[in-house]
Amino acid sequence: MTITRSGAKAEHVSKNKDENSKDATLKHQLDTKTSPSSKRPKKDDGKKQQTIEDTIPSPTEAYGDGKNQPPASKGKGEKGQDVKDENNGVHPQGTTNQHGSAEEKGARQGTVPSSILEKGIVYFFIRGRVGIDEPSSVDDIRRSYMVLRPLDKDAKLGEGTIDDAGNSRLIAIPKKVLPLSGRDRWIAFVEKSHASFKTLKEDFVSGSDYATKTVGVRHTPAAAPVAEGIYAITSTGRESHLAYMITLPEDLGEVQKEIGLREKGSFIISTRNPQYEAPKGTSLPQGPDYTKEVQDEFKALRWTATQPKHLDFANTQFLLIGESSGIKKATDPQAGQEKNEQLPIDELEKLEDEDTHRMEDLQGDDSASIFADLQARAKDYPKLQTTF
């Protein structure tokens, strides 16, 4: 199996790739019922989830006129709280963080566009099927995941790793691959909310063994990282989007492409109202424990534009719809934007460039950089995988 490894560091050149794919306008049926490795160089099982039926409403026209978008939520986690790891403050690879947290809050006060509801760091992982530590194809993958670590909306990224604010979210994608176009629509769900890095290490990344009466001891493999980058949840009126830009690895490999990752990508995201029956093959044993305020915002709608606060509840289910236009629609400037606010695409590109420099300066290869951010020792976990 091929993995990425670090070489000597050379001078960085920021990625600036044109996106030429045309924005395809795709119309979906609307259900109108309302009843209940290599480090970026500096250069000179599981049961397969069924496909969502075409009768599932597209969120494109399901949210009214978009004039009553609820404000972005900061969530319940205590942001900015320093959390020491088991190494008594010594970061992985035996180095100390000389710069403190990379998250510099308030550095872009008043300049981030209001259409960006949330921004942060995203990590992509895969986990092999039971007994398969090293997947050799997509069929060997049990499930794919995203870990979202929100940042303060007005923050910039400096040097070093980010603090553990206890506000990370683990998003499970039972379909295993990401949607690429509007014809690709399937459900993801929040497996953990308000998670600390310690919780992610112990309850998610690590593998485990368990006993069965029929086949004896079974092995659940550890989760393996496949990419790291930045993300933003944006609003374009009636729709919400989850846009991302990949920082690591520098060049997407076979694994990244097979699971649907792009260097820049986006999805329309729509939260399911748990008071209605789930689409066939997608129900969870337990629904989200929404507050009355959050539940009331759904009104009689089966789906509503995803707000960051929805993702702060475990078992929230939301629809991922691919966007063939990349991040174009997700970063379109909105009417009424303040003159002092920068364009959404400018904020994402600035954050991605800061993240690129930040990850370059961390010791080790891509895997080491990712696990250093998660306050874990890379040697204890699978390497970042680029080929099957």
Structural class of the helix and strand makeup? alpha+beta
- Largest β-sheet summary: 8 strands, antiparallel, barrel
Indicate the low-confidence ranges by residue numbers: 2-56, 58-98
Count of alpha/pi helices: 5
Question: Biggest sheet, strands in spatial order?
Answer: 2-3-5-6-13-11-10-9
Shape, principal axes of CA atoms: globular
Q: Would you list the SSEs in sequence order as H and E? A: EEEEEEHEEEEHEHEEHH
- Report the strand count: 13
User: Strand-residue fraction?
Assistant: 15-25%
Give the overall average pLDDT.
82
Distance between the termini: 6 Å
The multimeric state of the shown protein is single chain
Helix content: 10-25%
Rg, Cα atoms, Å: 20 Å
Overview of this protein structure:
- 11% of the residues lie in helices and 24% in strands.
- The strands form 3 sheets. It has an 8-stranded antiparallel barrel. A two-stranded antiparallel ribbon has the order 1-4. A two-stranded antiparallel ribbon has the order 7-8.
- With 388 residues, it is α+β, with helices and mostly antiparallel strands.
- Strand 9 and strand 10 (240-248) form a beta hairpin.
- The model is unreliable at 2-56 and 58-98 (pLDDT under 50).
- The chain has 5 helices and 13 strands.
